[in-house]
């Protein structure tokens, strides 16, 4: 288990891929965007 192992976190980082062991950070909706939507209603 190391850089060559796709199932480990280190292996995912090495291959620059994502999965269960290395989650991608989701972008949170900005507060300004939700304020614009409420103002438009």
Keywords:
41 residues, 2 helices, mainly alpha
Would you give an account of this structure?
The protein starts with 8 loop residues before the first helix and ends with a helix. Helices cover 41% and strands 0% of the residues. The chain has helices at residues 9-15, 31-40. By secondary structure, it is mostly helical.
Separation, N- and C-terminal Cα atoms: 54 Å
Low-confidence stretches: none
- Given the C-alpha coordinates, what overall shape results? rod-shaped
Round the Cα radius of gyration to an integer and report it: 18 Å
Question: Would you tell me the overall average pLDDT?
Answer: 77
For the sheet with most strands, the description reads: none
β-strand percent reads under 5%
Structural class of the secondary structure composition?
mainly alpha
Following the backbone from N to C, one meets helices and strands in this order, namely HH
DSSP helix count?
A: 2
Helix percentage: 40-55%
E-strand count: 0
Oligomer: single chain
Give the secondary structure arrangement, pairings included.
Layout: H1 9-15, H2 31-40
Summed up, what is this model?
The chain has 41 residues and is mostly helical.
């Amino acid at each position: 288990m190391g850089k060559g192992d796709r199932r480990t976190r280190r292996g995912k980082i090495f291959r620059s891929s994502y999965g269960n062991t290395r989650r991608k950070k989701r972008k949170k909706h900005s507060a300004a965007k939700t304020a614009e939507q409420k103002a438009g209603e």
